[in-house]
Amino acid sequence: MAKSKVPEPSDFGEGSVDLAKGGMPAGPDFEGETMNLAQAPILRRPVYQPGASSVEGLPTTLQMFHNNPPVMLKPHWHAQVEVNFVVQGFVHYIMGDHDIRLEAGDLCLFWGGQPHQLDDKSEDAFYAGAHLPLVHFFRLRLPADVPSRLMQGAVLVTSATDEADPVNFARWYRSARQGSAAEAQHVVDELLLRIERVRFEPYRIVGECESVRESETADQQSSRAVARICDFIAANFLHDIDSMDIAAAADLHPKYAMSVFKKSTGMTMNEYVTLLRLSYAQAQLLQDGASVLHVAMESGFGSLSAFNKAFRKIAGKSPSDFRRDGRFIAAVASAAVDIRAG
């Protein structure tokens, strides 16, 4: 297999470990008129700047966040399940064809591979949580029907939280960022146990289509198989791998591996490999001096045409347009800081 550069946290800028979400304000026309940044109402709030977080570039690493959620100027996506706990205030999300408002004390899980936005929030909003790679998600002991429902666009929400949750999320965030490798692993273990409490408490599923409700659900044996598949993909997604390689590494028959992964996640193994590569490519595109061709090769794509086609399919735009829009958002974020400081 051809070797590619393995991403490291230092490859990406410092910033909030969170990828917050937000709505697109009226204007600007990226192709024509420029917007007067000082007059934009969105600038009265913190604005998420792509590239300030490593969540896209490290799609197989669990990362914690704990902050006042910045808004984004466009939808975003990433290759992890997102865990959100609203500490205070409220946040409002648009996720595909549905929306949801979360109040203080709400805990939710959703698949970050679907484009999503945080388009509104209270002035005092504060949230915490994590970006959970699938390799961890499919090890969770959740109700049997939940993983596949979330992977196909539904959102799990529970209000069965208590006074220990704000304290624990703050502690996990500090330990994940500043502790030893052993302490960071302990954070993962504690977080997964906290999420598994959902089995014993009331929760609701939001934004689910009829076809998902009628579909078969994965059992624990299937989830273990998917976790083994994700293990191999996480370690090798930048390499030249295919379904046969993945199935062999997971000690599964190729047809069974393809079937159980599709049933559990709603996508093929090759589609998941592509999603991880595209997530990594997003972060690379926003680094200074990186050419689109170089990013395509570093991200595991065999050709520029394959990269452009895959990127446009999920992002709705070319890699070049994505990078241009990212630079605009960086300008807005910088202006927002200046206005709030003034």
Quick structural summary:
The protein is 41% helix and 15% strand. The protein contains 12 helices and 9 strands. Strands 1-7-2-5-8-9 form a 6-stranded antiparallel β-sheet. A 3-stranded antiparallel β-sheet has the order 4-3-6, with no helix packed on it.
Can you offer a commentary on this structure?
- The chain is an alpha+beta fold.
- The protein has one domain.
- It is built from twelve helices and nine strands.
- The strands form two sheets. Strands 1-7-2-5-8-9 form a six-stranded antiparallel β-sheet.
- α3 packs antiparallel against α4 and α6 (220-236) packs across α8 (254-265).
- The longest helix is centred in the C-terminal third of the chain and has 23 residues, at 319-341.
- The chain is globular, with a radius of gyration of 20 Å.
- The model is unreliable at 1-43, 210-216 and 336-340 (pLDDT under 50).
Secondary-structure blueprint:
Layout (H helix, E strand, L loop, with lengths): L62 E5 L12 E9 L1 E6 L2 E6 L3 E5 L4 E6 L4 E8 H4 L8 H6 L3 E4 L5 H15 L2 H16 L7 E3 L3 H5 L5 H17 L6 H7 L4 H12 L3 H17 L6 H7 L5 H12 L3 H23 L1
Antiparallel strand pairs: 1-7, 2-5, 2-7, 3-4, 3-6, 5-8, 8-9
Helix pairs in contact: 3-4, 6-8, 7-8
